[in-house]
Amino acid sequence: MRNRSLITHLRHIDIAMPNFAEQRRFYTELWGLTETAGDTGVSFLAAKGSPEQYVVRLREDAHKRTDLIAFGAAGADDVDTLTTQLTSQGVQLVHEPKTLDTPGGGYAVRFFDNEGRVVEVSAEVSARRHRKVEAREPVPVRLSHVLMNSPTPKATVAWYITHLGFRLSDTMTLGDRGEIMWFLRCNTFHHSFGIVRGPHAAFHHASFEMRGIDEFMRGTGRMQRLGIERLWGPGRHRAGDNSFSYFLDRAGNTVEYTTELEILDEDTWHPHLFDLRDPTNADQWGTANEMDEFIAAKSHNDVDPGLFTAPPM
């Protein structure tokens, strides 16, 4: 059974870690996000060009984990409809739809995906007053997409298509190793979410959209001058046609600056298979350092200890 998509967009990614102060400083002073709310051991971080109340939530915890991935719906009725569908399909809820007490409020349901990640779908969240990011300003405009590692990737891709109505945009392959990366969309952006074949379930990377190529390159250069470990890039992907520069945050999560992510025509688009043995499928420009097993292993990340365990907030 495939549901009509009730998901409109990606809202935020919430992560926890022991080194909270370092992470907070990384995302605010170095990466370019703005703290809009917070309390002891928690910080809500917005992108300057986004109406979302926050695109990243940091939470101090004894263990590093992904707290949740949050998506938007058009209205409260859609949240209720989705909840009914999920319940009828045997999806385990974290909680029934209820009013949120996070910045901007709203109405949301939370549930576990097939591998135990917590997913939130919300509506009626108040928009944040934001501003246009100016030319040459190297700060994120919005959260672009989030990818997750999965040891059972085909089942996980099928779960998001079946239960949440995501559509497959493109798939990356690696010769006789087969399919290794799946890009999923919930609107006309090429992807807002994706799954990567990995040794265990874990956060793969979060990507932040910059104003344009100049701002993307300025942000990339700023991070390099600050001595932040660069994993891969700058380059330009084939799938999604977006630019990329990948770095590691202070907890070892991979984060990306990107821009110009492809916008698709839903009526004419057909998914492609791109083989990474052709280097132009990984980087059309040919400017990035070569992707190797060492770099890939960094984005495999640590085993997530929070699977099938709801975060405390």
UniProtKB/TrEMBL annotation:
Superkingdom assignment: Bacteria
One Pfam family per UniProt: Glyoxalase
Q: Which SUPFAM superfamilies match?
A: Glyoxalase/Bleomycin resistance protein/Dihydroxybiphenyl dioxygenase
Residues in VOC domain copies = 9-124, 142-260
Please report the name of this protein according to its UniProt entry: VOC family protein
